[in-house]
Amino acid sequence: MIELKGICKTFKTAKRNAGFKEAAKALFKKEYSCIKALDHVSFSVSDGEMVGYIGPNGAGKSSTIKIMSGILVPDAGECVINGRIPWKDRINHVKEIGVVFGQRSQLWWDVPVVDSFELLKDIYKVSDQEFHKNKDVLTELLDLGEILRTPARLLSLGQRMRCEIAASLLHSPKILFLDEPTIGLDAVSKVAIRGFIKEMNKEKGTTVILTTHDMQDIEALTERILLIGKGRILLDGSLSELKKRNETYKKLTVDYAGKGVEPIPGLTIVNSVEGHAQMTVDTRILSVSSAISHISGQVDVTDLSVSGATAEEMVVALYKEFSI
Amino acid sequence: MKLYLKYAAILLKSQMQYKTSFFMTTLGQFLVSFTVFLGMYFMFDRFQAVEGFTFSEVLLCFSIILTSYSLAECFVRGFDTFSGIISNGEFDRIMVRPRNEILQVLASRIEFSRIGRLIQGIVVFIYAIPASGVIWTFDKILTVVLMVVGGFFVFSGLYIIYASLCFFTTEGLEFMNIFTDGGKEFGKYPFSIYGEEVLKFFTYVIPLALFQYYPFMYLIGRTDRITNMLLPILGMLFILPCHLFWRIGIRHYKSTGS
């Protein structure tokens, strides 16, 4: 159970303009500006839930994760995770969580991955039995096998990320924080990692909080999303709810032979090249079927597809809506 | 402690991945402090004595300082390079592991190549022992041990202060080197030769003299007071306010963006 109530965090940063003269001036007199990274953030996540935490860069995603994992102390507000306040009871708290920072490695760079695992076993005081069980399961699910005996610095990004995730699950944490776990990965690795996270959540009931910019991650994994912007939680709801909000139009892609389609109210032509056109249908004015019959009345349709808004587009629309 | 050894093993494995670099650095460390030794040798060749201290006495003082300093540098290196640990995000990782932060910082960097300097300290020490004319009774041996251990603690304390300052600012910390590197350089000679004020400063503000000048006077028989011998123990207590300062600093940790 994760509960955040009115969490605030402000960072003070020194500011100066570019140039040598300004740099010299900054030596003596500094101008500070306060940035509100988090502004009364409140939400709660129950056990076994999987939550996608999205928002543009600098919105406060990482700061929230850092507060929840006991790295940062907030200026105000309450945060209780499994009955503990992370920064007050840090050691007991972090025993039960796993954290993956997509951009930073937790493996020891120059030694084989399995050596890192052994050290983590001692750090987390995992029993031999549990360690071997977890290691075997993770090796199989994430297809680590040979990789384990390679030094971390020689791994490809995808291989390393699989090891990172395995490393943060060796102590069977109840909660897993994933900060951009699929950043920079190729399609195959992304799919493998998504599948694994889903499996973990289902089989072991691990609570997962995931930050990402990749909307496919969200689509594939989480039912619930939290949108943060400028330090505030702007939206807390399910992905399907969000979809409904944006279901006011559909996209039509048409291949045809003939002269071209005349637009009618509710049907807009986004672009059209010889024999190929993309259109949007505003479903409040025009139903999809009447739009199709209008088109087929005008041209000879060879191919046609209908699609709703992608998660990507929904998020862009959301960012616009909240102007963040 | 067991965990610390495991960390040490993994770091040794890593550093051994680059064998040539490791041995060259060790050798380099040895040579650097050897030139210092030569400098002292030639100076005393001219002047015979400084403020009443003979060459072999100063050598003894030098070797003790060098030994405790290189021990501190070898094992407390994590605090010396702490600004790096903060800026590359390693400290975030430390914070999400269920172990004491100080232990983890200590264990994150162990500079085995500093052994070169340690060997230097020990070599000079072995040379200075017979030359200094000290009669090695039990209390004198204890004094030396206390001096080295006391020195290790005080230097470590200074490193911890240095690291704690990184929580508040990341700039303008070079002045701390005056006390660590500078302490080692100054400490080649007993602090009294720099005059009364310097001695007072290094007694009451930065307690370097507590493990150097005072017990050293006892060691070479200039004083009989047993308190002089025990002063390094007082110096070790310096670590306590340093630790407190660290605890305050950690609450101000800001982390870095990612």
Describe the structure.
The complex is a heterodimer of chains A (324) and B (258). The longest helix of chain A is centred in the middle third of the chain and has 18 residues, at 187-204. Helices cover 35% and strands 31% of the residues of chain A. Chain A has 324 residues and is α/β, with parallel strands linked by helices. In chain B, a hairpin with a 2-residue loop joins strand 1 (49-50) and strand 2 (53-54). Chain B is built from 14 helices and 2 strands; from the N terminus they run ααββαααααααααααα. The two termini of chain B are 33 Å apart. In chain B, strands 1-2 form a two-stranded antiparallel ribbon. Helix content of chain B is 71%, strand content 2%. At the A-B interface, helix 2, helix 3, strand 5 and helix 4 of A face helix 1 and helix 6 of B.
Could you give the topology of this structure?
The complex is a heterodimer of chains A (about 325) and B (about 260).
Chain A: E1 2-15, H1 20-28, E2 31-45, E3 50-54, H2 61-68, E4 76-81, H3 90-95, E5 97-101, H4 113-123, H5 128-141, H6 157-167, E6 175-179, H7 187-204, E7 207-211, H8 215-221, E8 224-229, E9 232-238, H9 239-245, E10 249-257, E11 267-273, E12 276-282, H10 288-298, E13 300-307, H11 311-321
Chain B: H1 2-16, H2 19-47, E1 49-50, E2 53-54, H3 55-75, H4 77-80, H5 82-87, H6 90-95, H7 101-108, H8 115-131, H9 138-168, H10 181-186, H11 196-205, H12 213-219, H13 226-236, H14 239-251
Helix pairs in contact in B: 1-7, 2-8, 3-8, 3-9, 9-12, 9-13, 9-14, 12-13
